Amino acid sequence: MHEMALCQGMVELIEEQRAVNGFDRVERVIVEIGVLGHVDPHALEFAFDVGARGTSAESATLEIREIPGRGWCMDCSQTIEITARGDGCPACGGYQIIVEQGEEMRLKELEVA
Ligand SMILES: [Zn+2]
C-alpha cells in the first residue's frame, strides 16, 4: 500500500513545518488528490491515522479534496475534462491526450494550534 509511504512523507513535511514555525499541534490537514492519480482516499485516511501517531498531527482531521482531471487533446486541439484514466476525449473520442492536471497529490494547507 503506497499510501503509507505518501503519509510518511506528509508527516515528515508537517514535522519540518513544526520545527520552522513552532506550533504545538495540527488540527486539520488539507490534501489535494488528483482523480487520475493512484491514491485511494480511504487508504490514505487509514494510513494517515497510523502514520501520524506520536506526531503533532496525531489528532488532526484529514480533509481530502479531489482535483479534477484535465488534459489537452491533440486530435481536436482543445482542453478537455478527463474523468477517469484511459478515457477518450469527450469531444472527439480520440486518445491522443496529454494529461495536464489530475495525477498529483499535494499538501495544500495546515491548520495549526
Ligand atoms: Zn478531442
Walk me through this protein's architecture:
The protein is α+β, with helices and mostly antiparallel strands and 113 residues long. The protein has a domain at 2-68 and 102-112: hypothetical protein PF0899 fold. It contains two helices and six strands. The protein has helices at residues 2-21, 41-51, and strands spanning 26-34, 61-67, 69-73, 78-82, 97-101, 105-112. The protein has a three-stranded mixed beta sheet with strand order 2-1-6, with helices on one face. Helix 1 packs across helix 2. The radius of gyration is 17 Å and the shape is elongated. The two termini are 31 Å apart. Bound molecules: zinc ion. Zinc ion binds at residues 73, 75-76, 89, 91-92, 94. Zinc ion is lined by residues 73, 75-76, 89, 91-92, 94.
